[in-house]
Design brief:
Layout lengths: L1 H5 L3 E3 L16 E3 L17 E5 L3 E6 L16 H8 L7 E2 L2 E2 L11 E6 L2 H12 L7 E6 L6 E5 L2 E4 L2 E7 L7 E10 L2 E8 L6 H5 L1
Antiparallel strand pairs: 1-2, 3-4, 4-7, 5-6, 8-13, 9-12, 10-11, 12-13
Length: 208
Amino acid sequence: MQRLIKQGDVRVGGTIPKASLPLRFGDTIDITLPPAAPTHPVPEEMPINVVYSDQDLLVIDKPPGLAVHPAPGRPCGTLVNALLALYPDLKEVGEQQRPGIVHRLDSDTSGLMVVARTQPAHDDLSLQIRERTITKHYLALVLGHLVPAEGIIEAPLGRDPGNRKRRAIVEDGRQATTHYHTLQSYQGFTLLEVTPHTGRTHQIRVHL
């Protein structure tokens, strides 16, 4: 409603009001609702780097800054929108809101992503990820130097009690394990290879 008021789509007595306007008995309020957002992702031509393709799967080199699939407030401009423009049959694979997607990378994270092109491939890849027979390796540039230079971080993750939009190490969180290995040390920074053995949201970021 606040957004509709700011956009001028709400009128009181025929004029555009401030959001702070107190209403009086008998006021006439007119609200113009915008068109409904599409209920499923729409194809959108965007350049993406396909590094491998066969009849069952794709491997995409996702750049930083590209979200993987639409979300509230971001219906387009995602990897899924671009994939649907190149591979229309993907709309029949997996979930309606993220067709073909079997794993995700954060918007700001770059790297290779496997995308299923058929439902059997989607089911098989999803099973492999659940059973952790697929391993993922990340490069992370972090502040400071880790001691020891290689190790395993085991700490349960959940919602931050002080900020529900953030993740944190919490006593009653879900078990999470991250292995790290120092590749190079710099002044004030360290380049790590990181292997998460569980797939919790923001796991690497919170553990480091």
